Amino acid sequence: MTNDYIIRQVNWSDAQQELIQIRQKVFICEQRVDPHIEQDGKDQDCFHVLVTTLEGEAIGTGRITKKGKIGRVAVLLPFRGKGLGSEILQKLTEIAQEQSILCLHLNAQIKAQPFYERHAFVADGPVFMEAGIPHRPMLRHLDPIAHQMRT
What is the CATH number for 133? Predict the structure, then answer.
């Protein structure tokens, strides 16, 4: 990543406002996801990543559950195409390895499936509708040897 952005793990209680703001802009405003679906009540039990500009503007986020489910990966429109989604996914993967999570899974929007495939995720089921958007379940197994070398 360039030196123009900071990506870090954050606690929900500390960064809730910034995380919600990004997700509202991307999921609720842009994609018209029902706010009740987007706010699922699981955030306090997840690990979160926040991307900010050097000036502190919150521009990207993602989360992973303790069982390895990645979700709520979002980058604000003006900052897309700069590799931030990949950086978020990499940081979530690092968190998974630190937590001894060896299998990652997610429900990818169909238009994002090629992005996840570039990051070693494979389709793991049929297309289904969620929040009026076609999705496909995907998974990625992490290398247990690489995990052991880190610990």
Answer: 3.40.630.30
